[in-house]
Design brief:
The chain is mainly α. The chain has four helices and no strands. The chain starts with 9 loop residues before the first helix and ends with a helix. The model has no long low-confidence stretch (mean pLDDT 83).
């Protein structure tokens, strides 16, 4: 099915084509990422196999059985707490920055929603104005038609005639009352 059969104008057709190109590019990028991850996994397996082979040949380097106490990872400061303090400061800074960004996103989403609502209202008002303009144009064309002018002239004559007849009638009514 061609896009012109969907009733899309040129601008919308271009937007759809751009989106399709974007989606195709994004899909290709995802495929490259999956392929890269697969290659990393394959490399990791080869490395694990080499380590296992090395451990078989060098029993002194084989890992010792871990006790439950050594099973838990522990963070040990390298320089009497200075490194941990720097890491904590950086973590705090990043958390603060993250919160600011989240708030900024909420603000932008609210602004976008308001702008969209306003756009819809303006479009609705524009449609209403176009309807009114169309109605005025139709009324103007009708008023300029010969049938309208003839009807107006006929009504004017009939109204004048009715006024004249009322005047005459009022004279007779006054004569009857006397």
């Amino acid at each position: 099915m061609k896009m012109s059969e969907l009733g899309l104008n040129d601008h919308h057709q271009n937007e759809v084509l751009n989106y399709m190109r974007f989606a195709r590019t994004k899909s290709a990028l995802k495929l490259k990422t999956v392929d890269s991850c697969f290659q990393d996994l394959k490399g990791s397996r080869e490395l694990l196999e080499q380590i296992a082979e090395f451990e078989k040949t060098e029993p002194a380097c084989a890992p010792k059985k871990m006790t439950p106490e050594t099973n838990k990872p522990k963070l040990v400061p390298l320089n009497e707490g200075v490194t941990a303090e720097l890491l904590n400061k950086e973590i705090f800074h990043l958390q603060t920055e993250n919160e600011k960004l989240k708030n900024r996103i909420k603000t932008l989403e609210a602004q976008a929603t308001c702008a969209l609502d306003e756009k819809l209202k303006v479009e609705e008002d524009l449609r209403e104005l176009l309807k009114l303009q169309d109605q005025k144009d139709q009324d103007k064309k009708f008023e300029q038609s010969s049938a309208y002018r003839n009807m107006k002239e006929m009504l004017t004559r009939k109204n004048d005639l009715i006024k004249e007849l009322r005047k005459r009638l009022s004279k007779y009514e006054l004569d009857d009352q006397s």
